[in-house]
User: What shape does this take?
Amino acid sequence: MSAHPLASFLQRIRLDAAGLRDVSTRDYVYLSGWDGTPFTAVRDRLANDPTLRVHTLDSGHDVCRDALQEFSEILLLGE
Assistant: This one.
């Protein structure tokens, strides 16, 4: 394990209109096994968005350690 890169908190992703059109599926993965997660409200809001597939995994913050198989299956849905 290593510290999360500071830039990932400070820099926004930039996709132009063409880049957004190339994204065929959009998924949000909510990790329900993380006590005190600040993302419950985000999950609730996105659950009503018909352009998104919202997934819930019983995992802590380190999804690759706690639920690698389930997370991999979600990633492969976008192929």
In short: The helical segments are 7-10, 17-21, 40-46, 63-66, 68-77. The chain has a mean pLDDT of 87. The longest strand covers residues 27-31.
